[in-house]
Write a structure and sequence with these properties.
Helix content: over 70%
CATH class: Mainly Alpha
Order of helices and strands: HHHHHHHHHHHH
Largest sheet: none
Number of strands: 0
CATH superfamily: MetI-like
CATH architecture: Orthogonal Bundle
Structural class: mainly alpha
Number of domains: 1
Strand content: under 5%
Length: about 250
């Protein structure tokens, strides 16, 4: 019975979930790093306000976030009307809606991990980079980002895992259209309602394996990043000390 289910299993929910997770992770990666870099340099009051705004989807129920997204992108609302009539972009009940919902829900994980990683970077490394004549952009790209690599890698993997399993906001914004917006999480809920525990168990096992593999890769990458970071930090500090000694 199980073998027969596996042979005739519709894999479209898995492909949709993977596509959605990858697309959302790419957006969150760049947006999260950019937001974390900006917030880290803000004054305390502005930083607290911005941090609360960027972290809000993490503490809100996903259906609440989905409600707000539906208000924004609905074709009955001004922004949704503009997107559809002027740019021919439809968000509600489309795969784009899946990506937007997953991005909003998963973004705080990327942002908070990147921000925490930036805040833990030794300030002396930044000062050393300035001593060596590096611009702020070079310091960000060559000192701050490499030193924060373990946290960024962790945030990226957690973001992917969260986007892969997103359900509430996706259901509100994109619906559950088989072969179009039907993700693994929605498929599990649907077959459970039908009492099909075998199919639900197959999808649960698939998600568990993907999530575990992602966390395994995260731990490997984070450990390697820490070792490389220590060697890099020692090299920068040594260069700075040598230049200061020469002066």
């Amino acid at each position: 019975m199980l073998a027969d289910r596996l042979i005739h299993l519709d894999l479209s929910p898995l492909f949709i979930s993977l596509k959605t997770g990858i697309a959302a992770t790419v957006v969150c990666f760049f947006a999260g790093i950019l937001a974390a870099g900006k917030v880290t340099g803000m004054p305390p009051k502005k930083r607290a306000l911005a941090d609360g705004f960027f972290t809000l989807p993490l503490v809100l129920p996903p259906t609440v976030a989905g409600f707000f997204l539906l208000l924004i992108f609905s074709r009955r609302r001004p922004f949704g009307i503009f997107l559809y009539e002027e740019l021919n972009i439809k968000v509600v009940q489309t795969w784009l809606g899946c990506v937007i919902a997953a991005t909003v829900i998963a973004f705080p994980l990327m942002y908070r991990n990147a921000r925490a990683a930036f805040e833990q970077v030794d300030k002396n490394l930044i000062y050393a980079g300035r001593t060596l004549g590096m611009t702020e952009r070079e310091i960000f790209l060559k000192v701050l980002l490499p030193s924060a690599k373990p946290g960024i890698v962790s945030g990226t993997v957690l973001t992917f895992a969260r986007a892969l399993g997103e359900y509430g906001a996706t259901s509100m914004l994109a619906g559950n259209i088989p072969g179009k917006t039907g993700t693994v999480s929605q498929k599990i809920a649907m077959v459970m309602q039908d009492g099909d525990y075998v199919t639900a168990g197959i999808w649960v096992a698939a998600v568990l394996m993907i999530a575990f593999f992602a966390l395994f890769l995260m731990n490997l990458a984070a450990g390697k990043g820490r070792r490389q970071g220590k060697r890099r930090d020692g090299g920068i500090s040594g260069e700075s000390s040598g230049e200061n000694g020469a002066r």
